[in-house]
Design brief:
Helices cover about 65% and strands about 5% of the residues. By secondary structure, the chain is mainly α. The protein has 2 domains: about 10-75, Arc Repressor Mutant, subunit A, CATH 1.10.10; about 80-125. Strands 1-2 form a two-stranded antiparallel ribbon. α1 (about 10-25) packs across α3 and α2 (about 35-45) packs across α3. The longest helix has 27 residues, at about 75-105. It starts with 9 loop residues before the first helix and ends with a helix. The model has no long low-confidence stretch (mean pLDDT about 95).
C-alpha cells in the first residue's frame, strides 16, 4: 500500500482503507478479516501497526474480536461507517467548502447544477 504523505498516521490510513473495503463489499458483514500478521504482510507494515488499526475499528464498533479466531466485520459496520463519514463531512469539512464557494462567488444553483451533472456522468459511466 502506498501511504499518503500527510499528517495522518499510518494506522489511521490502514483503518480508513479497511473501512473503504467494508463499504465496497470486499469484507461483507460477519466476514472474517485477514489475521493481523497476514494484513501486515500485505501492507508491508509492522503487525503492531495493523493491530492498532484493528483496535481502532473495534472501538468504533466496525469490527469485533472472537478470541482465538480473529476479527470479524460487525453486522451494521457499513452503515456505521457511512454515518460516521457523513457526519464528519457535514460537521468538519463543509464549512471550508462553503467558504471557498462564497469566495469564488459560486451560487447554490451553480453548485446544484454541477452536482446534477456529476451524478449524470456517474450514471452514464455505469451503463
Amino acid at each position: 500500500m502506498l501511504f499518503e504523505e500527510n499528517n495522518k498516521a499510518i494506522y489511521i490510513q490502514i483503518s480508513d482503507r479497511i473501512c473503504d473495503e467494508i463499504i465496497n463489499g470486499t469484507y461483507p458483514p460477519e466476514s472474517r478479516l485477514p489475521s493481523v500478521r497476514e494484513y501486515a504482510s500485505d501492507m508491508q507494515v509492522n503487525a503492531n501497526t495493523v493491530m492498532r488499526s484493528y483496535e481502532r475499528l473495534a472501538q468504533r464498533g466496525h469490527i469485533y474480536n472472537r478470541r482465538g479466531i480473529g476479527f470479524f466485520v460487525a453486522a451494521d459496520a457499513r452503515q456505521r461507517i457511512l454515518d460516521e463519514r457523513g457526519s464528519d463531512l457535514i460537521d468538519k469539512r463543509l464549512d471550508n467548502i462553503f467558504s471557498l464557494l462564497q469566495h469564488l462567488d459560486i451560487t447554490p444553483d451553480t453548485l446544484r447544477d454541477a452536482y446534477s451533472d456529476y451524478l449524470r456522468r456517474q450514471a452514464d459511466n455505469k451503463n
